[in-house]
């Protein structure tokens, strides 16, 4: 069995896989990592390998704790990947984007796949029908756009994402919602259209914390998959066992 750990800014996603089948999933605060990890090994003592994707928020001590229970692979630019990596600076490629590219490679073999991850940042990652990772784009996510307007001005309030009744806002708050939600959806539709002009039979995967909220509002046909990154991490763990 495999343990997959995706550590973000404040939360950790933890999943247990039996080969390619997910058998357990939970989300918890970063400070609960050690306690929750020990609990999962009590429930699943058959776990023999783990992979950790962290953007620097898990300490070496916390990661080392896992090695008491199983073999641990910390994902980095030195990890083996099943796709051809054509990123010009592979050492700077985020581990989350590596995992998404791996998930795309296995999800749609021999196909053109664009993965859109709507998290803290909005990332676009492209794997073509030759199994080649080309790169993509990074732009501010939903919460970041709201926060930027509040922090970079003296009077605009800090809002949570919300529904827009009309794209023409008739108040400060509705104008901000239109600017963020309508703006980011138009961005996504525009980017997808650009990729469709270059890549035939393009499959678009939408994932990340804001994926469900945004996927209902974009015009293009997409596949929403909330745990796509975790699937990619499990694939990478299996690939690096070899």
UniProtKB/TrEMBL annotation:
This protein's name: Type III pantothenate kinase
Molecular-function GO terms, alphabetical: ATP binding; metal ion binding; pantothenate kinase activity
Annotated binding of ATP, by residue: 6-13, 120
Organism: Arenibacter nanhaiticus
Pathway assigned in UniProt: Cofactor biosynthesis; coenzyme A biosynthesis; CoA from (R)-pantothenate: step 1/5
The EC number(s) this enzyme carries: 2.7.1.33
UniProt remark on cofactor binding: A monovalent cation. Ammonium or potassium.
EC top class, as a word: transferase
């Amino acid at each position: 069995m495999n343990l997959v750990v995706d550590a973000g800014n404040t939360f950790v996603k933890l999943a247990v896989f039996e080969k390619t089948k997910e058998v357990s999933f939970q989300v918890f605060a970063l400070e609960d990592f050690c306690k929750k990890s020990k609990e999962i090994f009590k429930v699943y003592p058959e776990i023999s390998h783990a992979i950790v994707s962290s953007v620097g928020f898990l300490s070496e001590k916390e990661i080392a704790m896992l090695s008491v229970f199983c073999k641990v692979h910390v994902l980095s630019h030195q990890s083996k990947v099943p796709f051809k990596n054509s990123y010009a600076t592979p050492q700077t490629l985020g581990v989350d984007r590596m995992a998404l590219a791996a998930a795309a490679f296995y999800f749609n073999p021999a196909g053109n796949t664009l993965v859109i991850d709507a998290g803290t940042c909005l990332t676009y990652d492209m794997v073509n029908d030759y199994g080649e990772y080309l790169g993509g784009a990074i732009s501010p996510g939903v919460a970041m756009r709201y926060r930027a307007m509040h922090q970079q001005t003296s009077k605009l309030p800090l809002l949570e994402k919300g529904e827009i009744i009309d794209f023409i806002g008739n108040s400060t708050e509705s104008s901000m919602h239109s600017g963020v939600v309508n703006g980011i959806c138009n961005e996504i539709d525009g980017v997808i259209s650009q990729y469709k002009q270059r890549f035939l039979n393009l499959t678009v995967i939408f994932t990340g914390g804001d994926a469900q909220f945004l996927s209902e509002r974009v015009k293009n046909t997409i596949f929403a998959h909330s745990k796509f990154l975790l699937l990619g991490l499990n694939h990478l763990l299996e690939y690096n066992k070899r």
